[in-house]
Amino acid sequence: MSDKLIKISELHNNDYIFMEVLSDLCGVNNVSYNHYLSIILQKSENYLKGFFKGNEYKKFIKKILYIYSIKERNDIVKEFQKNYYDFVKEIEQKKYKFNSILNNFISDEGCTKKMIWGDCYDVLKQMKSESIHCMVTSPPYYNARRYSQWKNMGEYFKDMKKIIKQCYRVLGNHRVFVFNVGDIFGNDNLHTTSIWGNRRLPLGAYFIQLFEKVGFTFVDDIIWDKGEVQSERHKNGNRPYPFYQYPMNCYEHILIFHKHRLDVTRYPCPVCGTLNVNGNSYTKKGLKSWECKNIDCFKRSKSNRGKRFSAKIYNTQSVNKNKGSEIDKDFIYLWRRDIKKITPVIKINCKGENVVGHTAPFPPEIPEFAVKMFSYKGEKVLDPFSGVGTSLKIASELDRVGIGIEKDLSIKDSVYKFVGKYSFDEFDL
Asked: With the C-alpha atoms ordered 284, 291, 298, 6, is the resulting torsion angle positive or negative?
């Protein structure tokens, strides 16, 4: 079929609305009537006109004009699909007012290691929605360090809930949050403040419940085996009798959570590119799939069913396949087990000095796992409790953009020493 050039002035009133848009907005005098983009727009017109509000439809058409210069059908479909997903995401992001200066700092491609100095809740509140591709962190444990003191565990989880809700908003849809936390021994101070209130506090279990209340989906719990027990607590060596002997905690949890914000927006068929699709099913909580209903689609089953797909596939598995983000087979093998032995960071030297500059340093293996398994090169990885910056350093070394949030200004020198001041960007909030 040859492309026929149709002059805008020759079109009748009932011809495609996008022809009028091209004339009104872009000064285009002719367009290829049989170009495959025109076919996509014709079949998708009713949905597009109903979905986009105000001038959004015209803006979208103007955004995709360049696709008319592309000849290959598959390339046309890919470009339309990319622009549509991006445009819909921008609409979602505009629902929340964010700090444009902070967003420009985060988006600046001039540096791949960025530290934001400030309280993580205050910083997260000012970030653009769904602007981060992966999150990895270890939170301050309840009353376990000087910098992490709360009146009681209720207050602790009240603060954590506020932060995790903002993390949910900021994380991209269908993306992953890797959260390292260990159980602790202490007093929740909810019933008594005396020594008799001391007990093992299962922070891992409590955080799973909290994440799911916020909207995350719990996926997995990888046990970080820290090796030999480092404490004398519960040993009771002089009492080798029943009820005196208890095991010591020598592991932590590496919790994996998915974000699946329910999105009922139609997305284009990855084969034909049209929005002539129907809802198919919910494969997981918050995860909707679609089925192509375009009878002219180029791929249909033996029973004449159209292609089935979801936005998750596009956002997490299709769009970045060719970016050179392959994971080494040996690395995959090392993380096939749900019990992973990792040696804790040695922070005290033979002179009793803290060589790291932080009382709870993060082992690099955990952010390395998160970055390699759940992000592509060039994407943004955020650690909301950054400490000395281990996560952002690892992310940068793996060709991602590492972003950290830290409020403890006393460790700035340690951060510079560890991350590298001259290849490091910072923002004070």
From this structure: negative
- Of 40, 76, 83, 15, the closest CA to residue 292 belongs to 40
In the chain, which residues have pLDDT < 70?
Answer: 1-33, 230-234, 319-323, 345-360
- The distance of Cα 123 from the centroid of its chain, to the nearest Å, equals 16
| pLDDT 10s digits, 85-99 | 999 999 999 999 999
Length of the chain, in residues: 429
> What are 28-34's contacts with CB under 8 Å, separation 24+?
28/65, 30/5, 30/6, 31/5, 31/6, 31/68, 32/3, 32/4, 32/5, 32/6, 32/68, 33/3, 33/4, 33/5, 33/6, 34/1, 34/2, 34/3, 34/4
Q: How many CB atoms lie within 10 A of CB 126?
A: 18
Which helix or strand (DSSP H or E) is residue 101 part of? helix 100-107
Taking only Cα atoms into account, the Rg of the chain, rounded to an integer number of angstroms, comes to: 26
CB 37 within 8 A of CB 80: yes
Fold of 100-260+323-428: Rossmann fold (3.40.50)
Rounded to a whole number, what is the distance in angstroms from the first to the last CA of the chain?
A: 59
- pLDDT per position as a tens digit, 8-49: 344 444 444 555 555 554 555 555 567 899 899 989 989 998
> Tokens 């269908």 correspond to what residue?
174
Query: From the CB of residue 156, how many other CB atoms can be counted at a distance below 10 Å?
Result: 23
Determine the Cα–Cα distance for residues 176 and 168; give it in Å rounded to an integer: 10
Q: DSSP of 176-244, one letter per residue?
A: EEEEEE--EEEE--SS--SGGGEEEE-HHHHHHHHHHHHT-EEEEEEEEE--S----TT--TT--STTT
Residue 93 and residue 384: Cα distance in Å, rounded? Answer: 20
The candidate with the shortest Cα–Cα distance to 380, out of 409, 355, 352, 401, is 401
Taking the CA atoms of residue 37, residue 40, residue 45 and residue 49 in that order, the dihedral angle to the nearest 10 degrees is -70
- Confirm if 180 and 254 have CB atoms less than 8 A apart: yes
Question: How far is Cα 393 from Cα 403, in angstroms, rounded to an integer?
Answer: 9
Tokens of 1: 């079929």
Question: Distance between CA 427 and CA 405 in Å, rounded?
Answer: 9
Determine contact, residues 217/175, Cβ cutoff 8 Å.
no
